[in-house]
Amino acid sequence: MGFTLRRSLPSITGLLALLLIIGVAAVVFAGAPVWFPAAFAIFFIGLQYAINPLIIQWLVPASVIDHDGTRYLTDHPVGELVARRCRDAGIPLVKLGIVDDGNPNAFTFGRTPSDARMWITRGLLERLDDRELDAVVSHEVGHVKHWDFAVMTLAAVVPMVLYLVFLVSRGNRRAAYVAIGAYVAYLISYFTLLALSRAREYAADHWSAECTHDGDALASALVKIAYGMGQVHAEREAQAKALAKSGRRSSALGQSFRSRSMNVMGIFDQREAEALSAAFASGIDPTRAVAAMRWELVNPWGRTLEKLSSHPLVARRIAALEDVPGAEPKTWSTLKATATVSPAEQASLWSSYWTQLTIAVAPWAVLLLAVIGGVLQSVFSIGLAVAVSGGLFLWKQRMRYPTTAFSAVDEVTSLLERVDAGPVAGIGVNVKGKIIGRGMPGYVLSPDLVVQDSSGFVPLLYSQPLPLWGSIFALFKADKYFGQEVMAQGWYRRLPGPAVELRSVIAADGTQTKTYTWTTRYFASGLVLLVGLIVMAAGLAGA
Fold this sequence. Notes:
With 543 residues, the chain is an alpha+beta fold. The chain has helices at 3-29, 36-59, 77-89, 122-127, 130-145, 148-169, 176-212, 215-227, 234-246, 259-265, 270-281, 286-298, 300-307, 314-321, 330-337, 343-373, 379-400, 467-476, 517-542; strands at 63-65, 95-99, 106-109, 117-121, 248-249, 407-408, 427-438, 449-452, 457-461, 485-494, 498-507, 512-514. It is built from 19 helices and 12 strands.
């Protein structure tokens, strides 16, 4: 059994079993036609296959590099790399597009290998060396070779069908248990789908390492992309910009090694010293890369957030590459091995994790337990539950959005050293640098920005109370920041990647934007508390 199938089989089996069980239950207990599950599965498969590539190509415009069937008509090294790896995989040359965005990334999409597209951002070409670029290209070709977009499209039908069974069954008293089972199965299938996606990522990594025989190159590329590290090379930047303008439009560090960092990592043996030198040579500060991996390996939020993500954590991807014979990432395996903390620090991280998790769910838990426990039998008890919930909501917002002590950040990659960071408790920061692109590279509806300084880059998450607000910003204002030096204030989090949720951003030309999600949440929490107190008072008055 091949590596890809071994990784994917548990998830695929689980999805099919869920679909079969709930489909049979819907037929037997809810009176649905026998063809019901299959019909909707075929409908969704056909619809997604027909329109998804066209929608993506429209929303993420790129300059397409022509080819003659054997080679791409460009002198840029990426053309030869993609052509060679397509030949290695036994697939036709993919449609190659260059997205004019400074955020480094690459992705594939399409219907079949003969219809595949590979979109590569300008930022990826600027930031990666030839070895790293080859590793990323091979990874993306691996997705095409393994038919991953087809597999994931098919698999995504299962949660859709299960949710549809829930909607159809919930109004039928005879099928109440079917509805409950369908919804539970829907939730399970959603997490199973994410597990399948992570398995396909591991498989693409495996293929890349087998092709290049260079696990260190892929590991280094992952560190640069996921952690926002590495430098832009001037020569590569000029080549990438020229390439981005040359094709057809598809549609609308100077680092210092501080003794302080040596203390964090401990005393290095000869292998570790060599690994550090290799990392420095590729433009990466290894101490901060290790700090980023340390968070993934020791902070409980890392494992939790990975279960909610379509991609595995970088540290675990590097560990998986160690199983590829002849391509083991020696440099990055050595560095990963230093990503540890003391037992006391580990205990502190677990304590913080449970505290934050409790505060995050407590407001909703109070209301749920009140309803289940039947305490909402009087006006006063209703008000009490609402008031307690409102108070807990306020506590949660104070932890999530502290409004004092916004610390200046000299280098954005220094944020990676915060092993205590997580998705709930915000860390107030002021960052400065140049906006290089969108959070989702090239996507015209992506309101998030990416800020870069001499050390690396970090996404700036734009969040407003109304989703339409974000779309309007993305379409009409986000590009005004591109290429400008900015000062941004917000809250640093690990999600699991590093990111700053914006409070405000101001550019050198005076362009300014503020977000109001944080104020809206404070206001809504206070309103819940006030309503609860009013209802309590009404209950006492009527007693």
